[in-house]
Specification:
Layout (H helix, E strand, L loop, with lengths): L6 H12 L7 E5 L4 H11 L8 E8 L6 H14 L3 E6 L10 H19 L4 E3 L4 H14 L12 E4 L2 E4 L7 H10 L16 H16 L3 H30 L5 E2 H5 L3 H15 L6 H12 L5 E5 L4 E6 L2 E6 L7 H4 L2 E2 L6 E3 L2 E6 L11 E7 L7 E4 L5 E3 L5 E3 H8 L3 H6 L1 E4 L5 E4 L3 E2 L9 E7 L1
Parallel strand pairs: 1-2, 1-4, 2-3, 4-6
Antiparallel strand pairs: 5-6, 7-10, 8-9, 9-10, 11-15, 12-13, 13-21, 14-21, 15-18, 16-17, 18-19, 19-20
Helix pairs in contact: 2-6, 5-7, 5-8, 8-10, 10-11
Length: 454
């Protein structure tokens, strides 16, 4: 952003143009005692009356450095001198993890911010992310490898648990913010951990960014502009992709044939949108390509790809969908062989069935009916878990294995695992229950029975 005017004037104009705040609103500002957040706090305090909201300062003492208590006291003194409402929270040293401290600290900090928002019924959380932070974020994501949507970097405004999270300094450079603090005699504390090159962002900040600015003084501006262009492109694409998702949506599952009729670059966008509707911000290009390989594999009608948080993307013949894996409670009937009692209804996978000696039994709710001729020697009739090589008898006298029955009927793997086979005392297959029955010739020497599926 050009700086012909002082930072305060630019900041005032920026907020006025976005119509972000009014005196009737309450905002929570995350303040660390560093130069960025102290400058942000002063900029917000000096807004024109018509754009200045009620301010609540939220400070977290992470107790990670020797000066943490001193920083807390400075923020307390500053707020008291300026009549600002302050909320402070300390991160218990005993709860500091051995690894992943940075991410754990961030979680603690934002959990606290949410509590403050709720306590004061505030409208927005405001943080001091600036243009250099944006450039660093875009570069880190680019280097790590990410889907292009996420190269838009940090959003200036986004949802935060039903509240707004606003970064009004996102289009201002770090140097301009620091100069503002110097010009206005604002005291701040330097966080020495910001010099730790073990942290990825610090390497970006202290090693890579200076090289970029040496190559082109406007390099940070250009990267931030690139992020804005990606964000605009993402919004345009998302608008169009959502229309395609709606067209292929068939009540929580999606029409695979319609998806595959689209070019691959459209397929990528559709998959990314579907995934993010279920598990936001969990995906990368490699995962999306893995899903596309499964969906486009004509020789593999079923399959799944493991996602985050126990979700899977499943392909089942002409459909695909995202599903959360839940341990299924399997009935003892699936795992045990049992004897069938005539004229008694049994529950199976998504249907009920009965073997009856009332061969003329009929009900409008019947899904399928089959006639079976049995002699007394064939009793007892049993049910057992279906095996792939169980064979039903066909009309021409041939046989068909259960595996082929399932494939022809496009039965999902989960349902195959739950299937049951009806057999006589000699082990002859009478039916793969619910999917295929053996065909019996009329035999006057045997009694006529009916297998009913409801």
């Amino acid at each position: 952003m050009d700086e012909p005017k002082k930072l305060q004037q630019q900041f005032n104009l920026h907020l006025k143009n976005h119509h972000w705040f009014t005196p009737k609103q309450t905002v929570v500002i995350g303040v660390s005692a560093g130069v960025d957040s102290m400058s942000l706090l002063n900029l917000m305090m000096n807004l024109p009356t018509e754009n200045r909201p009620q301010i609540v300062v939220a400070h977290v003492n992470h107790q990670l450095r020797s000066v943490s208590d001193e920083e807390e006291q400075y923020v307390r003194t500053f707020c008291a001198e300026h009549g600002l409402t302050l909320e402070v929270s300390a991160w218990d040293v005993n709860k500091h993890p051995q690894t992943g401290v940075e991410e754990a600290a961030r979680k603690f900090r934002y959990d606290f911010f949410l509590q403050v928002l709720q306590k004061y019924d505030a409208d927005a959380l405001i943080t001091a992310h600036h243009e250099n932070d944006q450039a660093e974020t875009v570069l880190m994501r680019l280097i790590r490898g990410t889907f292009i949507n996420y190269l838009s970097g940090i959003k200036e405004v986004r949802d935060f648990h039903g509240y707004q999270l606003v970064r009004p300094l996102l289009h201002f450079k770090k140097q301009a913010i620091k100069q503002y603090a110097i010009d206005n005699s604002i005291k701040w504390y330097e966080d020495e951990t910001n010099q730790d090159l073990e942290i990825t962002r610090n390497r970006m900040r202290h090693q890579l960014m200076p090289l970029i600015e040496m190559e082109n003084p406007q390099g940070v501006d250009h990267i931030a502009s690139f992020a804005n262009q990606v964000e605009l492109m993402h919004k345009q694409n998302e608008y169009l992709i959502k229309q395609i998702v709606q067209e292929i949506n068939m009540e929580n599952k999606y029409d695979l044939n319609q998806l595959l009729s689209c070019p691959e670059f459209i397929q990528q966008g559709v998959i990314d949108l579907i995934l993010n509707e279920n598990i936001p911000n969990q995906f990368n290009l490699a995962l999306i390509k893995q899903i596309m390989q499964l969906l486009n594999n004509r020789t593999k009608p079923q399959g799944e790809v493991q996602l985050a948080q126990n979700f899977v993307m499943k392909k089942q013949y002409n459909y695909f969908f995202v599903e959360k894996m839940v341990k299924k409670q399997i009935s003892g009937l699936k795992n045990e062989r049992f004897v069938v009692t005539l004229n008694q209804w049994y529950s199976a996978n998504q249907f009920k069935w009965m073997l009856t000696d009332k061969s003329d039994y009929h009900d409008e709710l019947n899904k399928r009916e089959a006639t079976i001729y049995l002699s007394d020697e064939q009793f007892p009739i049993n049910v057992q878990p279906t095996k792939n090589d169980d064979k039903v008898t066909l009309k021409n006298g041939g046989h068909q294995a259960a595996k082929r029955v399932f494939i022809n009927s496009k039965v999902p793997f989960e349902d195959r695992k739950m299937s049951q086979t009806l057999v006589d005392s000699n082990g002859q297959v009478l039916a793969i229950l619910g999917y295929r029955e053996s065909v019996f010739k009329t035999d006057v020497q045997k009694q006529k029975y009916a297998l009913i599926i409801k």
